Amino acid sequence: MDRETAVALVKEWVQGESLRRHLRTVEEAMRAMSAARGLPPSAPPGQDSVEGWGLVGLLHDFDFERHPTKEEHPFKGVEELRRRGFPENWCRAILGHAEYSDIPRDSDLAKTLFACDDLCGFLTAVALVRPSKKIAEVEVRSVLKKLKDKAFARNVSREEIEKGIAELGAGREAHIGAVLKALQDSAPRWEGVPPL
Questions:
Q1: Which pTM does this prediction carry?
Q2: Which pLDDT score is estimated for 112?
Q3: 116: number of Cβ within 10 Å
């Protein structure tokens, strides 16, 4: 599956702009994390690459609108991805991002997806309360402060953010900074462009 096919799948399954935006932000974070690890830009399907990690980020929640329950998400989406020949290790990473799936996050890809998912949502929330609503104005210290405020973005699990960072073995500020930089670096490409 290439990005064009993945985007078509997202457009078919996801109507909400906020979910499309979330999928794109996680894709950008995953691309940046894989590039920082020195992965090649592309590789055969199922092998670690910037493109492959990006596709996993883009598709990790594509089934959520149709199947929002814990009984169905992300299981139904992964069924569709398997039907389309999506590599099994990529499917396992998507399954593993749901804590309740009981699928271990036993690859760097799976750990990184889990560590980026809720954090991307939180960073977006922090940006949206800025006067400009721009991610470029968000700083790590403001993110750390907002993480302590339990009333802010209360639907985002601080526990999962912290667990993801710990599983990845990354420093807290370093990981938040790296994901924030990924979103800031990619923001100019998406300014004024509808999400997918």
A1: 0.95
A2: 98
A3: 31
